[in-house]
């Protein structure tokens, strides 16, 4: 069962041994598979306040005591969901790339949204979202807040001209400044929404 109580989810998780972490990882992946469209889950979302999370975008990855040890200066805007808040969508600001260390991985893991493959962006956002959970941080804390500008006639969108956005057309995607993306958005490209 997935915890939906925000106060519970704001508690920090404690470090865990690799052995215990692996057991929690198995439970998390099982729970994630039960969900309809989840791509990541943190242990505190199932009531275990230990530093373990899983992501499953391209392949299942268990992270035990994960830490972001490097990140890009650049950020981009992404529309996120969370299994604990199934009715909510939040536009967040995330690093374009991160390097993660975890006790159950000998090598550092790199994630970058700066590629043609849209799943790279999902995976990069997901790993940041799940590690945040372990620190009691939810997507609402990473909400992108800036003066709104109006895009076309339809939806006003809270994105500044120099903010990075992820846009896609078919299987292609790219990260670029919003002002540079505007002409593309009028030519068949769309802002990526989850
Ligand atoms: Zn979440």
Polypeptide structure, described:
The protein is an alpha+beta fold and 194 residues long. A hairpin with a 2-residue loop joins strand 11 (164-169) and strand 12 (172-177). The protein is globular and about 50 Å long. The chain has helices at 6-9, 18-34, 118-134, 178-185; strands at residues 40-42, 52-56, 60-64, 67-71, 75-80, 90-95, 97-101, 109-112, 149-150, 156-157, 164-169, 172-177, 190-191. The structure holds zinc ion. Zinc ion is lined by residues 82-84, 129, 133.
Bound ligands: zinc ion
Number of helices: 4
Number of strands: 13
User: What summary fits the major beta sheet?
Assistant: 5 strands, mixed
Beta-strand residue fraction: 25-35%
The average pLDDT value, as a whole number, equals 90
Oligomer: single chain
Question: Structural class, please?
Answer: alpha+beta
Radius of gyration: 17 Å
Structural shape = globular
Question: What is the first-to-last residue Cα distance?
Answer: 23 Å
Helix content: 10-25%
Q: Enumerate the spans where pLDDT stays under 50 for 5 or more consecutive residues.
A: 148-153
Order of helices and strands: HHEEEEEEEEHEEEEHE
């Amino acid at each position: 069962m997935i915890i939906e109580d925000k106060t519970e989810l704001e508690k920090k998780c404690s470090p865990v041994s690799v052995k215990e972490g692996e057991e929690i990882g198995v439970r998390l992946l099982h729970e994630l598979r039960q969900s309809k469209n989840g791509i990541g889950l943190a242990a505190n979302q199932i009531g275990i306040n230990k530093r373990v999370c899983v992501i499953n975008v391209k392949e299942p990855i268990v992270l035990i005591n994960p830490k972001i040890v490097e990140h890009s200066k650049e950020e981009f805007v992404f529309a996120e969901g969370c299994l604990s808040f199934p009715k909510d969508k939040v536009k967040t600001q995330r690093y374009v790339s991160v390097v993660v260390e975890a006790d159950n991985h000998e090598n550092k893991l790199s994630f970058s949204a700066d590629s043609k493959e849209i799943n790279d962006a999902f995976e990069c956002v997901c790993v940041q979202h799940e590690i945040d959970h372990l620190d009691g941080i939810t997507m609402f804390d990473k909400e992108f807040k800036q003066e709104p500008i109006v895009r076309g006639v339809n939806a006003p969108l809270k994105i500044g001209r120099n903010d990075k956005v992820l846009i896609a057309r078919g299987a292609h995607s790219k990260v670029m400044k919003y002002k540079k993306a505007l002409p593309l958005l009028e030519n068949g490209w769309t802002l990526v929404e989850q």
